[in-house]
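Batch job 17 of 40 flagged for manual review because the log was empty.
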Amino acid sequence: MGLSGHYGPYSNEELVGRAIKDRRDQVVLATKFGLVSHAGGGPGVIDSSPANTRAAVEGSLKRLGTDYIDLYYQHRVDPNTPIEDTVGALAELVAEGKVRYIGLSEAGPDTIRRAHSVHPIAALQTEYSLWTRDPKAELLPLLRQLGIGFVPYSPLGHGFLTGEIKSPDQLSDDDWRKTNPRFTGENFQRNLRIVDEVKAVAAELDATPAQIALAWLLAQGNDIAPIPGTKRAARVEENIAADGIELNANQLERLNNLTPAVGERHDEGNMSVIER
């Protein structure tokens, strides 16, 4: 289960805490810290100082009703705290048994190397999909060199690769994708061409476009574990079935050669806090 104290804030951890009561040993819990300042800044304030990191984990443990977190991610790199200090604090939490493994999210190559030199990093979470293939050139080789697992978020392109979104008008006014450059204006129409090719491959395999997008990711290596988000049980089952889909060489080549998506993957504000 992938969570964060920032989501809600806090409510998703509280909900999952109730759901896993009396069956903690049956789940692997992953949650994040660093996008809520516990020193007065509140939600949305990046703070990975050692003191805030410790305050965050204590809060997550309480809300989740557990005494340990399997995988604890830094949500975004804090420009005001050296990564060595943050990972040093996390290493102490590992030694205390409160955290089992340490992860990073949207960290750049230099930060990953520095963090890993302090304590082994188990996983990196970064956007990676058929329309965000940036990690393939530099990040993936580095992760494999260091033995770090890769957990792609938004593997379905924020829903775009499902083929269900045919117009920005389908999005509600409060949907954050309304301001995502890939979902706006001419960019949206040009990016539909990516979905057309995904749909063509899906038709050949009697699969859904979402399953093809996930199957392509899984074909990139056994060290990749995508985390598609969903609100419906039927979609969970659909996504799981992607593991049984085998793309042939021709289909992989077509997907590998898709025209790159048009537009940045986040708005300006969010782009400023990633890949640090």
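Reviewer: the log was empty due to a logging misconfiguration, but the result itself is present. The beta strands are 30-33, 36-37, 42-43, 69-74, 99-105, 123-127, 149-153. Unflagging and moving on to job 18.
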